DNA sequence: TATTGTTATACTCTATAACTATA
DNA sequence: TATAGTTATAGAGTATAACAATA
């Protein structure tokens, strides 16, 4: 498997001799710190493939739900309809996704991966797995699963 | 304490009958989902005070490190110098932060909270604590601390 | 009337690079 | 030469609103 160089780390988790006040006690800020670190590594690993995290998740969702409509994809990704157009345009311009006519609803497009899109996704998925293992390398498998489970329970809606 | 209404939730964590493929197994995506939910709630709670998460963290850091220089603040927040200027301009325009002359280095500014800034920060901190408790309400105290500890260990640098 | 996708537009966030004034 | 801050500018990303076609 290709060796992907780790992120160049522009962001210092803790600047020496600086007090972080209440930030150190907040889940939200711990999340932000982690997210910056993860995003940097993702970008370093997938950027050379011209894949952003949003493009990746869009392709994964399309692959897992062939012939998904744009509106649904937007709901899944949490992006407005107009934003989905941009994302899909980008994927289509790269030849990774096609818009096909919906059989019964002439307003809607159905999204599918092209053969090239599937090939790229396989490669990207490998890199993303390596990336995910890298950013959670200081966690045991149990801790990693625990972390995901805890994150899934965050949110203000009980 | 004022009752802050919870976030309006535009983002659905799971859309019914939709497969999420590999996304469900990734720390990075769990983080993203959680982050969207948390950000929405933060915005709903602090937005009325004209405080963004970045303004909040900047003020906390300035409060915890009076007479901090802009460059240092940028390193702490993980923002480029030019970005710090924008943030500080916004805080200064609201009368919450002042730029004072550095005694020995005429190039640098020292940042301090104004009296009004300190008052606002006290109020904001209360709301942020309520917000943080709200988004982690489905976690026990132990789980919450555990989550923060796990998040702090994420990152590609061993 | 409501919905799907599109366009136009704008706003936020952030970065790079060039600039100034110091050091 | 290097550094602190500023400005200009541009590029993502995202949202709202108006619109066309269709339901």
Question: From the helix content, strand content and strand pairing of chain A, which structural class follows?
Answer: mainly alpha
Number of strands of chain A: 3
Roughly what fraction of the amino acids of chain A lie in strands?
5-15%
* Spans where pLDDT lies below 50 across 5 or more residues of chain A: 1-8
Which CATH first-tier class of chain A would you pick? Mainly Alpha
In the CATH scheme, what's the topology name of chain A?
Arc Repressor Mutant, subunit A
Shape of chain A: elongated
Biggest sheet: strand arrangement of chain A: 1-3-2
Give a written overview of the molecule.
Two copies of one chain form a homodimer. The first copy, chain A, has 158 residues and is mainly alpha-helical. Chain A has one domain: Orthogonal Bundle (Arc Repressor Mutant, subunit A). Chain A is 54% helix and 8% strand. Chain A is built from six helices and three strands, in the order ααβααββαα. Chain A has helices spanning 27-46, 53-64, 70-77, 81-93, 115-135, 141-152, and strands at 68-69, 97-101, 109-113. A three-stranded antiparallel beta sheet of chain A has the order 1-3-2. In chain A, a hairpin with a 7-residue loop joins strand 2 (97-101) and strand 3 (109-113). In chain A, helix 2 packs across helix 4 (81-93) and helix 2 packs across helix 5 (115-135). The longest helix of chain A is centred in the C-terminal third of the chain and has 21 residues, at 115-135. The model of chain A is unreliable at 1-8 (pLDDT under 50). Chains A and B meet through helix 1, helix 2, helix 3, helix 5 and helix 6 of A and helix 1, helix 2, helix 3, helix 5 and helix 6 of B.
């Amino acid at each position: 498997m290709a060796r992907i160089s780790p992120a160049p780390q522009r962001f210092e988790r803790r600047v020496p001799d600086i007090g972080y006040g209440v930030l150190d006690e907040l889940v939200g800020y711990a999340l932000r710190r982690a997210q910056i670190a993860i995003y940097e590594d993702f970008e370093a690993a997938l950027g050379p493939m011209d894949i952003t995290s949003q493009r990746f998740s869009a392709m994964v969702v399309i692959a897992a739900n062939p012939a998904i409509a744009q509106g649904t994809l937007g709901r899944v990704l949490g992006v407005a309809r107009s934003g989905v157009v941009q994302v899909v345009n980008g994927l289509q311009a790269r030849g990774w996704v096609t818009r096909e006519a919906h059989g019964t609803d002439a307003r809607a497009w159905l999204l599918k991966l092209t053969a090239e899109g599937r090939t790229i996704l396989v490669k990207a998925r490998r890199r993303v797995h390596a990336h995910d293992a890298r950013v959670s390398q200081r966690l045991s498998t149990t801790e990693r699963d625990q972390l995901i489970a805890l994150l899934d329970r965050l949110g203000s809606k009980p």
